[in-house]
Amino acid sequence: MKKLLHTAIFLTVLVLISLLGQLPAAAAPEPAGQIINLFGQVSLKQSGTEQWRGAQVNQILMAGDVIRTGPASGAAILCVDESQIRLNENTSLELRRAAPSPRLRLAEVVPAAVSQTVESLYGVSQGEIWLRNKNDKFRFELETPAATAAIRGTEFNLRVGLDGLSVITLLEGRLQFANPYGELILEAGEEGLARPGQAPTKRVVVNPADAVQWSLFYPGMFSYRDITLNPQAMPGASPLLLGAVEDYNNGRLQEARQAAEAVRQREPDNPAALTLLGWISLQDQAPQEAREYFQRVRPENDFSQVGLALARYRLGDLSGALAVMQPATQTRPASPLLLTMQGYFSLLAGRPQEAQRLMEAAMAGAPDFVLPRSFLVQIFIVQNRKAEARRLAEQLIAAAPRSPQAHLAMGLVQIAFFDLPAAIRSFQTAVSLDPRFLEAHIYLAKIWLGSDYLDRARKVVEVAQQLAPEEGEVLSMAGFVRLAYRDFDGARRLFQRAVEVNPRLGEPHLGLGIVAFRYRQMEQGLSSMLIATLLEPRVSLFQSALGKALYQVRAFDKALDVYDYAKTLDPRDPTPYLYRGIALTDLNRPGEAVQEINRSIELNDNRAVYRTRLALDRDLSVRNFNLAKSYAQLGLYDWAYRKAVTSVQKDPTNASGYLFLSSAFAASRNRLGSGLSALLLYKLLSPANENTFSQFLVGQSTIDYTPMFEMPYARVLTQGSIGTWTNRKAITDNFIEAYGGRPGLAFDVAGFYNEDQGFRAKNGDNKTYSSINIAKWEPTVKNSILGGFSYFDSEGGDTGNLNDAGYQNIQNYRRYSHSKIYDVGFVHRFNPNATFL
Q1: Alpha carbon distance 389, 379 (integer Å)
Q2: Cα distance between residue 538 and residue 542, in whole Å
Q3: Which among 505, 566, 555 is positioned nearest to 535, based on CA atoms?
């Protein structure tokens, strides 16, 4: 009996386990996105909980999570459906669900087997967000207390007040804005308004871009030499310190430090000495040390307060910096310096209108003060108000010709108008006036790098690294220089470190995307490009890179849309026109392609590489594209010839022009020798990568997809045919070709075998073997070696005059042909304007 009872209990347990196993498991939340950047008070309430916790950069967000920002705070999120979202201060966003995009895995954080949902759904209960999503294959809905927006592939700004008033400003695309009381369709340039309990209305906006100015990236660059310390405003300034302050203002930091330390030996808490040492520490890139000095200053003064705010900001505490500045301007009469720096931190916190108001107030109180005008120049440039920026920069230079900041402002304006030689002079002047001016060094390096002066870029970056080895912008720029020298692993380490020390920068993510494509990590590359354009959303060059990434993953229509968007951000930038022209050529739309390429040529002074000389990557794969294709498809041979000749005349050491010219020669003038000479120059001068030889394959019957990034790439083409004459004698024609390469290496190997046994009974045969081989290797970025070998061997009978009915076959006639051709070339590039062949 006892045994039977044990058996019954055992069976009952088995049945219960079986039944429990059949119950549906609670669905685990699916990944919805990732926090890319945040500042200030940002908290997260995870799905299924009621507890708020501090959010972290790189934190994965799940469906149902709510993210909330406090005062002077913000966050940037990249969602799995490719939505780029920025949160302004005092905003609450719920990621209710997100439909994952198959071309985006957020660096593999989203599992490949994640279940597909019908649409993405977000909720904003209060605050302000900017959202952009170019993936119109997904449907999105965004709910507010007053209405629901149905979205497909668009960009907009949404504000939700405490009373539920919802205002959505549409910059791109089309959306439906509806609630139970009515609905309307918004087009680009329109704004929809909805209150709880009322039907939505709309109005036309004169400048819809004004609505998203808060979401833009404002670099806020300045020279410490333009903040002149005034000992009269620093309590405790002894005669010895007067000389120390003068040394500091003239850039003699070591002498100033020695004098300040001597004073502190007698008076450890001397406020003037502590203030001076704090500012010296800021210039020495020691913000922690600077903060300790400034915190001990009693009584506080304008310079100690501004210094403390800068130290906190340099340590990553923007909210703390604002917390220092706001009481300082409220407890005593606000000096122009306090107003300016409060505006500076407001600008960094995403309050450009408040920042502009404070800068203008500072200018009214001190017409000769450089900093507020310089910051306004930067605001106007970011907001694409270039004419105002130039007018203000010219006034600055006239009023303060010895100001490093004034020359930086002018250099930024000159870049905006693509006057790069003048910008170089401005940045060089700024560096000569302030050798520690980090941003001037960085911009100088950018221009040298974009212009292919690699050695000059490297030297400038090395100086910047000595000044600030752990500054995010310096690390990012050093990464792009490493990228130019094909040190991909070294570049990736620098980019990753730049992201760690300054998550708000878009440039290092751009670099990480380029490196990811180099290793054919397509999803990761696209993710990095989306992050870069999320952090710095209205930069033409970043959008062009995103378009190139979308094209590389074969999202062709979206790539074309992004190129068009990049044009609107900077109509003087030739890069999106060039990329769009290449894309349209590949997509067999030659008429549109020719228009785009012509425009890129015009914008870049008829040079052979029709991209901006501010691009951070060298763009070598694109430089091997044959721009004559589109013209040839339309039969515009003479037009192509004129364009190509002009390109070579303008830039005689650039390979792209010679590839253009060789095709144009062959098509328009039938001058085979000239065309081959131009083609030889292209082969010698061209960058070695996967695209070097794909433009003139032997097997031209194949339409090859054009890679847009340097990466390992190899293809094999083969073709064979066989047949017979009526006398059963065989004909065979076989061909195989392998081509491709990797950064610094290119190859094209082709072999042929043809045999025709003849239609005659005797001596009507022909047999041919041939091979064409070419390879290029770049041991350094300045040197390249080209090697080629061609082989031809043919034997045949008397196969001439086949259509002459009276011709008599000579049965003892045999024809033999044999040739070997070797090509060797060496190239050394001294600089972009001097090359040895």
Answers
A1: 8
A2: 8
A3: 505
User: What is the Cα–Cα distance from 602 to 599, expressed in whole angstroms?
Assistant: 5
**Cα 554 to Cα 559: distance, rounded to the nearest angstrom:** 8
Q: 753 has which bridge partners?
A: 734, 769
Residue 779 corresponds to which amino acid? P
**Contact assessment for residue 33 and residue 80, using Cβ atoms and an 8 Å cutoff:** yes
Handedness of CA 547, 551, 554, 560 (dihedral sign): positive
User: Token digits for 264?
Assistant: 């502190």
Dig out the tokens for 33 from the structure.
Answer: 């996105």
Those residues whose C-beta lies under 8 Å from the C-beta of residue 5, and which sit 6 or more positions away, are none
- Is the distance from CB of 497 to CB of 482 less than 8 angstroms? no
For 770, other C-beta atoms within 10 Å of its C-beta total: 17
| Integer CA distances (angstroms), 58 to 76, 78, 86, 107, 319, in order | 10, 10, 15, 11, 20
Q: Give the CB-side neighbour count of residue 708, counting CA atoms within 13 A.
A: 28
DSSP labels, 535-598? HSTT-HHHHHHHHHHHHHTT-HHHHHHHHHHHHHH-TT--HHHHHHHHHHHHTT-HHHHHHHHH
Q: Is the pTM of this model over 0.85?
A: yes
Interhelix angle 507-518/488-501, rounded to 10 degrees, is 150
Q: How far apart are the first and last CA of the chain?
A: 102
The single-letter DSSP state of residue 504 is T
Nearest-CA neighbor of 460 among 496, 498, 431? 431
Could you report the per-residue pLDDT of 289-326, keeping only the tens digit for each?
Answer: 999 999 999 999 999 999 999 999 999 888 899 989 88
Distance CA 737, CA 611 (A): 32
Q: Determine whether 436 is exposed, middle or buried from the number of CB atoms within 10 Å of its CB (0-12, 13-18, 19+).
A: buried
Integer Cα distance of 670 and 569 in angstroms: 42
**What pLDDT, in 10s, does the model give residues 216-246?**
989 889 999 999 999 888 888 888 899 999 9
Alpha carbons 738 and 778: distance in angstroms, whole number: 20
